Amino acid sequence: MKALKDITVRHFMRNTTVAAHPQTTLSEAAKLLLKHGLTGCAVVDDSGKVVGFISEQDFLKQLISAGYHGEGEATVGELMRTDPLTVSPNDNVVDLAEQMTGPKPKIYPVVEGGKLLGEIARHDLLRAFLDARGK
């Protein structure tokens, strides 16, 4: 059993690189999140570099407005946060868990050299803590 201080994001991140492109429509991106059971995802450019993040909350605000006002459909690039919080695969899970106890995001893109490797969410950290305790 590893000590928590020795467990990094790499050990518990999901290697699936679910991501949207800035030109993806909100409907397409929402379907992507639903299909993969995610609350948000990284937005990557044509070279695979993380350029933003979009969450369910961002979608709901826009979809409510579009549905109520009959507006056209926006793209991910119009709504994404352009300063996404990301983590390194070498970050410690305890440090990340402490960061996630506040109003920070529930899911983080895992990035190395600007490229998306996967994602890690609160439930992945719960698994890390239980595994470390041998439960």
Please give the structural blueprint.
Layout: H1 9-12, E1 19-20, H2 26-36, E2 40-44, E3 50-55, H3 56-69, H4 76-79, H5 93-100, E4 107-112, E5 115-121, H6 122-132
Architecture overview:
With 135 residues, this protein is of the alpha+beta class. The chain has six helices and five strands; from the N terminus they run αβαββαααββα. It has helices at 9-12, 26-36, 56-69, 76-79, 93-100, 122-132; strands at 19-20, 40-44, 50-55, 107-112, 115-121. A three-stranded mixed beta sheet has the order 1-2-3. α2 (26-36) links the parallel β1 and β2.
Share of residues in helices: 25-40%
Please state the structural category: alpha+beta
Report strand %: 15-25%
The biggest beta sheet is recorded as: 3 strands, mixed
Query: How would you describe the oligomerization state of the chains in this entry?
Result: single chain
Per the principal axes of the C-alpha atoms, what is the gross shape? elongated
CATH topology: CBS-domain
Kindly provide the name of the CATH class.
Answer: Alpha Beta
* CATH homologous superfamily designation: CBS-domain
How many beta-strand segments?
Answer: 5
**What's the CATH architecture?**
Roll
H/E topology pattern: HEHEEHHHEEH
Average residue-wise pLDDT:
85
Low-confidence stretches: none
Distance between the termini: 11 Å
By DSSP (H or I, 4+ residues per run), the number of helices equals: 6
